[in-house]
Amino acid sequence: MIADKLIDEFDKKLEEYFASSDLRTIDKDNWKTNYKKRIKQINHDESWLTLIACYSIFGNQKIIKKPQLVAINGILNSAGLGNRFNFTCISKVRVEVKLPEIREYRNYLKHIFEKDNLHLYPDRKKIIEDKLKNNNASFEGNTNLDLLIEGISNNKKTTIFIEAKFLSDISYQIKYNPVRDQIIRNIDCGIDYINNKKYAENFEDFYFMLLTPKMFRTKKFGKNKETELATIGATSSRLYCYKMNEYKNFRSLKELLPHRKLQNNEWATISENIGWLTFEDFWINSINNSTIKDNNEKNMIEEFFDNRNLK
């Protein structure tokens, strides 16, 4: 089975993949166990697909040379944003990154709930009432980011947050807020990340991108995959198809993030920096730039993508 082969072949290198992380991602001692648990559903698993897509470009990240940089620039410059990226250095590629709770949003929700406990589930309303008694109670918690890429592009520190979806859709509600979707939450975390000067120094150097199969990408972000499924509504079949188009209008972002006190030009920059990646572009750029050096690994990765119609 291809999944078993992938585990065996990538075992040592995936260990290296996580070992150098200075962020708390998957538990460094248990990442293998976590991924093996998912192996029974590997045909449907977004985490595995994202990991293999990254590995096809960056390998174990010990040495990132020109072919890898050309490949990632090619992928990013196909995201519907024009030729903005010219990475000359990649400092981090991390999966399963845990981002801290947004305090501004927590305080805003608390203020809202004190005026109107708006949840429609009775049990959630009760939990919210109990949480309001604790000044430090969490209303959203950490955010799990699927993929983080950081480096130097055009001589500037650049951060990219990526949310990956295979066939699932984005979450359309957060536990205590029934009207907050997964994309707006990730963008909100990105604003928090920049405000705290974690890496990129301003909003011009921060990007949010969705990563999906190519057939779902809407025309606003570039060409989608020409299949029969595309002719019967692939680009309108997911909530994220609508939300990605909506959030290209900065006024939508501003309206949905009222706890953020930004200028219109800052909102416009964040909106302009929303892009859409595809798994197919990872494979194409890995082949065009020969980033997979081991032929055995190349054959297995090719089979992995081919089995999912992502070549």
Task: Walk me through what this model shows.
This protein has 311 residues and is α/β, with parallel strands linked by helices. It has one domain (2-102, 140-307). Helices cover 44% and strands 14% of the residues. A five-stranded mixed beta sheet has the order 1-2-3-4-5, sandwiched between helices.
Major beta sheet, strand line-up:
1-2-3-4-5
Terminal Cα span: 19 Å
- Percentage of helical residues? 40-55%
Q: What shape does the CA trace take?
A: globular
How many helix segments? Answer: 13
Biggest beta-sheet profile: 5 strands, mixed
Structural class: alpha/beta
- Sequence of secondary-structure elements: HHHHEHHEEHEHHHHEHH
* Quaternary structure: single chain
Look at the structure and give the mean pLDDT.
86
Q: Tally of extended strands? A: 5
Q: How big is the Rg?
A: 20 Å
Tally of discrete structural domains: 1
Give unreliable regions as ranges.
Answer: 17-27
Strand content: 5-15%
Brief description of this entry?
By secondary structure, this protein is of the alpha/beta class.
